[in-house]
Amino acid sequence: MIHEVDEALRALLTGSGPEASGVEVVFDAPTREWAARRNAPTVCVFLYHIQEDATRRGSGAGEVHDAEGHVVARRTPPRWFELTYLVTAWASRPQDEHRLLSQVLGTLVSTDTLPEDLLTGSLAELGLAVSLDTAGGGHDGPSASDVWSALDGELKPSLGVRVRAPLAAAARPAAPPVTEGLVVRAGRLGSDEEAAPGRRLRYEEVGDPGTEGFAGPRERPPVPARRRRGRRQP
């Protein structure tokens, strides 16, 4: 799921124009050594925090159908995770970095959910909305200054981007559909004699409404007439 979110973000930023103008979109950690090797304008989208959104955890199981509508597997609800990215712009001059970062900001804040045509793999299969929050507050993860300290890098203007994406649960194959009914045999209990050939109850047989697939309605025995109660004559 994480790599699918990465590809969606890359496609989103690429479509906004930076890569078309010679700007590279990467997902590397912006350390000092990495920054020293940069020789072209770059947008760095660094994933530094992953946390589950426990408020969206569901229960039960859903059905997976094939092209003909048959149930082929059962799958528990997906688990939702928050992916937090540190987005920075790198160029030879601060003015160019600010211009590039402004272009990235304009693209991200105008997108509340990742477009469906950019989703691939399990994200596209689930068909659920993947939300995008840019430069918002309330992040539970490490602050940007803590991240820069851990990377031993120089503090730069950055955007905090949080993506809420579902992680598909493993699907368990379902048993094939029942096509034949039970076989009913009659015999004496405790007898050594072989039971008589049984009768198979097939599902294509149609009887009374509500008795489809069985041997038809059972006739009810007649109800005996009730005797009138009264005093016996002497």
Automatic annotation (TrEMBL):
<feature type="compositionally biased region" description="Basic residues">
    <location>
        <begin position="225"/>
        <end position="234"/>
    </location>
</feature>
<feature type="domain" description="Pvc16 N-terminal">
    <location>
        <begin position="4"/>
        <end position="179"/>
    </location>
</feature>
<protein>
    <recommendedName>
        <fullName>Pvc16 N-terminal domain-containing protein</fullName>
    </recommendedName>
</protein>
<dbReference type="Pfam" id="PF14065">
    <property type="entry name" value="Pvc16_N"/>
</dbReference>
<dbReference type="InterPro" id="IPR025351">
    <property type="entry name" value="Pvc16_N"/>
</dbReference>
<feature type="region of interest" description="Disordered">
    <location>
        <begin position="193"/>
        <end position="234"/>
    </location>
</feature>
